[in-house]
Amino acid sequence: MVVLAASITTRAGKPLLSRQFKDITKDRVTELLSNFQNLVANSNSQHTFVEDEHVRYVYKPFEDFFIILITNRQSNIIQDLDTLNLFSQTVNATLRGFDENDIFHNAFEILGSFDEIISMGYKENLSLSQIQTFLSMESHEEMIQEIIDRGKEFDAKEQRKRAAKEIMRKEHDRRMGGGQYSEYLDQPKFGTNNNQTNMNDAYNSYYSNASNAAQQSYQHLQKQQQQQQQQQHPHQHSPVAEVASTHTSQKRGRISKIGSTPASNIIITQGLIDEPENTSGVLITTKETISAQITREGDITSSELKGVLELRVNDSQYGKISIQLDSNKVDFKSKALNFKTHPNIDKKQFLQDGVIGLKDSNKSFPPNDQSLGVLRWRKTGGSDDDSIIPLKVSTWVSESSNGLTVTFEYELNEDSYNGGQLQDIYFIIPILNATASVTDGDAIIKGYDDEQGIVLYVKDLQQGEPGVFNVEIENVEDEDSLFPINVTFINPNGSSDISLCGVTADQIVNTEDGQPIEYQALSTLKNDEYVVV
């Protein structure tokens, strides 16, 4: 037998889909299907096949439709009917309902099963289960490939993050006064008693990549140990305090070679985000991360904001509480913000009243002095939408006698960000093996990274004080080679009312007596992928 085409039509003659297995044009198939309707309408036979002078039509009605096989007249009618039955089984297995929309929705799955049954016009020796297996294997392979591709993208992103963190770690090492050779001078000599140092490095390496709760627990333990050491040795200095005190000790213009080894201890390099002593028993922390793509002219291409509201309780008497958010600053029913509450939080109460409380009023928040994320949100911005952009950046590129000069303009977006300042602003230009110099402005060249490029640093930026600086890059002629430029910044210790989307606590109430209780609050902001393209 030779199957020329397999089709599905309505009983009124409307073609819905068709697969040709031989070289037949669409117009020819349409003509044959139209002829089929005339033959069926005029046929008094009880058989489910009709013929004309050229082809044979083997068909099967189901609901308001026909499944039709168009074969040559010399084919074996018994085999034709057996093939038709297999076509019918695959269609029934694919469709959930029998209407045109369902057929159109599953058109590609139906045609895929047709291709498994017929190859080059001839039937394959397959069962329905084998056809379904083959189709699922194809989808499985595609899914595996998608997972591999996502994994590669994630690895590349993580590698960029590690490189940026390494730059920041090296910068903090230099702030401690060691210079470019500090990483070698600080290492213990061979044969010395350095077990404690190695253990500390191992703990730092592990907890730098652990969960937020584990990091906070480890930091809390470190603080307790430091307090005990200070009581025993009051004249010794804390390493963390030394880093903070030397934060501004770097001289401008120093250039050093920055390595590309991934950083192992990133707790301090993330902006020294230290939570205050929780004297009141309750701490509210708003953490937000912003990603954005900005054109060279300063226009916004896309942006994404992710945030989490964390609750930390260290006293059991404050376990049964509810958080009243400020409804004047944000609409909790707005579709622009994708809010998601913790599974144990009463979502209905949150959407109606902006209150974060437990579903079960008999239960309490865990008083374990660990941060618990109770609310998450996500907002995306499209083209020319700067509603969640904290830092505006634009660039000007011009030719110089030795290469190209890039002028950076940057300022806080007063319409969306009321944080007052941003700290540790880095601009990373992806030019390798080049010489650069700041010709005007307050920027500092911090080094040349083997993978990232030229690293420029601006200490901080205040509200209402825009910044400008020029950097000249020698022996570069192609402007496109300067982009994309990565920008990093943080606001590690913002006040409680700083939030790009407006999520702030108004008051916290004891659910047992309805009385407000005192609490402490802070907010943090940092960037993820913030690039100028």
UniProtKB/TrEMBL annotation:
Residues 167-176 have a biased composition (Basic and acidic residues). It is a peripheral membrane protein. Residues 202-233 have a biased composition (Low complexity). Residues 167-258 are annotated as: Disordered. Keywords: Cytoplasm, Cytoplasmic vesicle, ER-Golgi transport, Golgi apparatus, Membrane, Protein transport, Transport. GO terms for cellular component: COPI vesicle coat; Golgi membrane. Residues 279-533 form the MHD domain. SUPFAM superfamilies: Second domain of Mu2 adaptin subunit (ap50) of ap2 adaptor, SNARE-like. It is found in: Cytoplasm; Cytoplasmic vesicle, COPI-coated vesicle membrane; Golgi apparatus membrane. Pfam families: Adap_comp_sub, Clat_adaptor_s. Residues 190-201 have a biased composition (Polar residues). InterPro entries: AP2_Mu_C_sf (IPR036168), AP_mu_sigma_su (IPR022775), Coatomer_dsu (IPR027059), Longin-like_dom_sf (IPR011012), MHD (IPR028565). GO terms for biological process: endoplasmic reticulum to Golgi vesicle-mediated transport; Golgi localization; protein transport; retrograde vesicle-mediated transport, Golgi to endoplasmic reticulum. The coatomer is a cytosolic protein complex that binds to dilysine motifs and reversibly associates with Golgi non-clathrin-coated vesicles, which further mediate biosynthetic protein transport from the ER, via the Golgi up to the trans Golgi network. Coatomer complex is required for budding from Golgi membranes, and is essential for the retrograde Golgi-to-ER transport of dilysine-tagged proteins. Belongs to the adaptor complexes medium subunit family. Delta-COP subfamily. Oligomeric complex that consists of at least the alpha, beta, beta', gamma, delta, epsilon and zeta subunits. This is Coatomer subunit delta.
